[in-house]
Amino acid sequence: MPFLLEFARDPMTVGAVAPSGRALARIATAAVPRTGSPVVVELGPGTGAFTEAIQRRLDARGRHIAVEINARFAQRLAARYPAVDVEHADAAGLAAVLAHRGLQHADVVVSGLPWAAFGEGQQRDALAAVVAALPPDGVFTTFAYVHTRWAPPARRLLRSLQSRFDEVVVSRTVWANLPPALVYYCRRPEADGGTV
């Protein structure tokens, strides 16, 4: 119920009426390494559907930073997941979030951001921040709902991803999610950050 209430308060930043399901969370977080000490940034964690999956994959290794623009979600997330470093901030400010922690980059960025609700400028700024935060071997994952895949914001997102990453792989449809969704796995960020 808190998720629906936050959607009603601010649908443009929450972007969905229900949190992502476990099947989508498992697929969206598959790029998080199960070995080493990676720095994982989660954008738009909401109530923590992806947070839980990331924590399971990390298994007390590395660093997990969650960047959430909704203050209520950020507070709840910090209380529920004390091992996660939760920052109440806009995704476009990712460079400052990392710098504040003495970090130059993130190994993996997992996004739960509502791209279809973003205007062109918001999409551009958030994606530019992601690309700038990733090293050459970094990975970015995000998702889209199948029913919105052909809408102008979703098509713009895919074009932007393809212009900013050398490789963009689209997962199979996650029918177990409500609504059904697919995941974009983006690898090898382009040095110039793309232009779309």
Q: Low-confidence stretches at least 5 residues in length (pLDDT < 50)?
A: 1-17
Query: What structural class should be given to the helix and strand makeup?
Result: alpha/beta
Order of helices and strands: HHHEHEHEHEHEHEE
* Count of discrete alpha- or pi-helical segments spanning 4 or more residues: 8
* Overall 3D shape: globular
How many beta-strand runs?
7
Average pLDDT works out at 90
- Terminal Cα separation, in Å? 37 Å
Fraction of residues in β-strands: 15-25%
Largest sheet: 7 strands, mixed
Helix content: 25-40%
Radius of gyration: 15 Å
Numbering strands along the chain, what is their spatial order in the largest sheet? 3-2-1-4-5-7-6
Report on this model:
With 196 residues, the protein is of the alpha/beta class. Helix content is 37%, strand content 21%. It has 8 helices and 7 strands. It has helices at 2-9, 11-14, 22-28, 49-58, 71-80, 94-100, 120-133, 152-164, and strands at 39-43, 63-68, 85-88, 108-111, 139-145, 165-170, 181-189. A 7-stranded mixed sheet has the order 3-2-1-4-5-7-6, with helices on both faces. Strand 2, helix 5 and strand 3 form a beta-alpha-beta unit. Helix 3 (22-28) crosses helix 4 (49-58) and helix 7 (120-133) runs parallel beside helix 8 (152-164). The longest helix has 14 residues, at 120-133. It is globular, with a radius of gyration of 15 Å.
